């Protein structure tokens, strides 16, 4: 894959010598009207794009009404770039533009497991700057093709842990900007409102029989979505709990359980988009009420079952959250509690036909979804999800 060519950083204008009689006074004016005009136009383009976009749907998942528990899924796969990362990419671009970090003709570079890079490639093209995605070689081809479709370039590395340093190095070498979603996701997002994902969910639930959800279940890649949800429910003084469902080989679960942000797992996640080998700086553990470890086979079984329930395919990270949502619904049923639970459809399954929807890939990975599909079928009949099995306890 191509890497961008090194360019020189622009020379800073010299500091003028103080005029006679003013020795000791310093005044440096770096204002640059041409750059500010470019910046205003770039921000206006991002705003106009948001203005053309519609909100995502909150789908109701058909469960027996007499269970007394309603499940909703916020369908983030309907954003123009197909995932919940569209929101994040917009926020990261606005944050970096307003911080003066993105400059005309300078590349934006990002470390990503793919979905963020697809959305960022879209915004980079919108404002007219080059974009380079640094990703692990195992990333599904469909995401590489989507990044290229939106005008971005892909720089693939062998070890998923290399993405951060490689992206930072490419930015240094090219005079570009390393967006660094894993650090900035939580702070770039407007968590108090501005129609963020949480505010949108609460507004869309307003006419339901249980308008304040008992639980919202998220998953974590950067941790940004869960941080926004958790901060918002606290800010809104809602009673809602926020649960993060985490796949195998992820550091978030043990890091949160043990209060240890230095956890490293040494093995990459098989559930694309979520589960990291380190606890990312954007993950805000103190705001999270509950975490659940979900076996990868259960995540994949859950999206297969979702296809039957909703008639649509989703990526496996959606299944990770869905399994946790089913577990919570089962507990509510057992304790006779009525209420609602909200999960997320993070991205579409069409990106993963060669992976989570391929029996060949499952066999290659030694993933057996059969027992989990059976447990889900029993759950859909009885409202009780048996287990948890020992591997689900972390
Ligand atoms: C498909 C998918 N689902 C869920 C997430 C989690 O989102 P966040 O980065 O906000 O934690 C990601 C993040 O990359 C993702 O790509």
UniProtKB/TrEMBL annotation:
Principal EC category: lyase
One protein family per Pfam: PALP
Similarity comment: Belongs to the cysteine synthase/cystathionine beta-synthase family. Cds1 subfamily.
N6-(pyridoxal phosphate)lysine: residues bearing it: 85
Cofactor(s) demanded: pyridoxal 5'-phosphate
Recorded catalytic activity of this chain's protein: L-cysteine + H2O = hydrogen sulfide + pyruvate + NH4(+) + H(+)
Transmembrane segments: none
Protein name (record): L-cysteine desulfhydrase Cds1
Described function: A cysteine desulfhydrase that generates hydrogen sulfide, H(2)S. The H(2)S produced by this enzyme modulates the balance between respiration and glycolysis, and contributes to redox homeostasis. Probably eliminates toxic levels of Cys (which can induce oxidative stress).
Species annotation: Actinacidiphila polyblastidii
Listed InterPro entries: Cds1 (IPR047586), Cys_Synth/Cystath_Beta-Synth (IPR050214), TrpB-like_PALP (IPR001926), TrpB-like_PALP_sf (IPR036052)
SUPFAM superfamilies (UniProt xref): Tryptophan synthase beta subunit-like PLP-dependent enzymes (SSF53686)
């Amino acid at each position: 894959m191509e890497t961008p060519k090194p360019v020189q950083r622009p020379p800073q204008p010299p500091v003028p010598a103080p005029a006679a009689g003013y020795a000791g006074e310093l005044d440096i004016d770096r204002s640059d009207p041409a750059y500010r005009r470019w910046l205003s136009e770039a921000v206006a383009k991002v705003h106009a794009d948001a203005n053309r976009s519609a909100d995502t749907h909150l789908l109701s998942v058909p469960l027996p009404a007499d269970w007394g528990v309603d499940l909703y899924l916020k369908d983030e796969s309907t954003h123009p770039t197909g995932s919940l990362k569209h929101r994040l990419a917009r926020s990261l671009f606005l944050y970096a533009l307003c911080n003066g970090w993105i400059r005309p003709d300078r590349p934006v570079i990002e470390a990503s497991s793919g979905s963020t890079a697809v959305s960022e490639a879209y915004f980079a093209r919108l404002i007219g700057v080059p974009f380079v995605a640094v990703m692990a070689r195992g990333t599904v081809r469909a995401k590489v093709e989507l990044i290229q479709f939106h005008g971005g370039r892909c720089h693939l590395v062998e070890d998923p842990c290399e993405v951060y340093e490689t992206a930072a190095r490419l930015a240094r070498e090219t005079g570009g900007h390393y967006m660094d979603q894993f650090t900035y996701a939580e702070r770039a997002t407007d968590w108090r409102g501005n129609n963020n994902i949480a505010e949108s969910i609460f507004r869309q639930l307003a006419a339901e029989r249980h308008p304040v959800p008992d639980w919202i279940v998220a998953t974590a890649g950067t941790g940004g979505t869960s941080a926004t949800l958790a901060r918002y429910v606290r800010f809104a003084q809602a009673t809602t709990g926020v649960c993060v469902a985490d796949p195998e080989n992820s550091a978030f679960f043990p890091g949160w359980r043990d209060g240890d942000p230095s956890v490293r797992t040494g093995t990459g996640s098989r559930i694309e988009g979520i589960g990291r080998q380190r606890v990312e700086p954007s993950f805000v553990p103190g705001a999270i009420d509950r975490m659940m470890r979900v076996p990868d086979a259960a995540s994949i079984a859950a999206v297969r079952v979702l296809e039957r329930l909703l008639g649509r395919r989703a990526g496996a990270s959606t299944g990770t959250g869905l399994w946790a949502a089913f577990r919570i619904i089962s507990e509510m049923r057992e304790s006779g509690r009525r209420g609602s639970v909200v999960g997320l459809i993070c991205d579409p399954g069409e990106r993963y036909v060669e992976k989570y929807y391929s029996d060949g890939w499952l066999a290659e990975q030694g993933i057996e979804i059969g027992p989990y599909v059976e447990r889900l079928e029993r759950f859909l009949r009885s409202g009780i999800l048996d287990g948890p099995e020992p591997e689900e306890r972390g």
